Amino acid sequence: MFNFKTFIATLALCLTLTATVKADVLVQTIAADGMSVTGVSFDVNPALGRAWINIGLNDSYASGEDSGQSEVRAKVAGLSYDAATGAIIFQEAGVAPVVCAVVKKNSFIGIKWSSIKSKGICGVTRISSSVKVTDDGYETKETKYMNIYFGKLVEGRKGE
């Protein structure tokens, strides 16, 4: 039997969920042949109020003295640093800001440094692949790319 009140409540819930779920942000496209993401960390420029992510990469084709480990800085639209609170904040349009990490100032015997502690609620949300075909006038070449997306992680999922 059709219950109009249940229908309206379900419809309102669906509309609320749809309105609050935002797409993640493409932050980096990397030639993907043999590459994999090993981790993500935050970094800041306190003087400019800027924050970004560092994407750790591993090249499985690296050999010898080359460890295959590298890191790429990626600017994230909506990611900023509030020097007054020490918070790294991710702000999407129409959604409440999320504190992704906190910068803590440390000192010991006159030596000062900062450390960044991730809250585990923002990070790489997905990685997709794409292929780009280039033509140099003599032949075509396919290059595989890894598209890395950043955003708020699904509730209950921890990580960076």
**Order of strands across the widest beta sheet?**
5-6-7-8
The average pLDDT score comes to 78
Number of strands: 10
Any idea what the shape is? globular
- End-to-end distance: 46 Å
- The amount of beta strand, in percent, is over 45%
Q: Give the class from helix and strand content and strand pairing.
A: mainly beta
Largest sheet: 4 strands, antiparallel
Helix % is: 10-25%
Query: Please, how many helices?
Result: 1
Order of helices and strands: HEEEEEEEEEE
Model regions low in confidence, pLDDT < 50 over at least 5 residues: 1-21, 156-160
Q: How does this structure look, described?
A:
It is built from 1 helix and 10 strands. It is mostly beta strands and 160 residues long. It has a 4-stranded antiparallel β-sheet, with no helix packed on it. A 3-stranded antiparallel β-sheet has the order 1-10-9, with no helix packed on it. The longest helix has 17 residues, at 4-20.
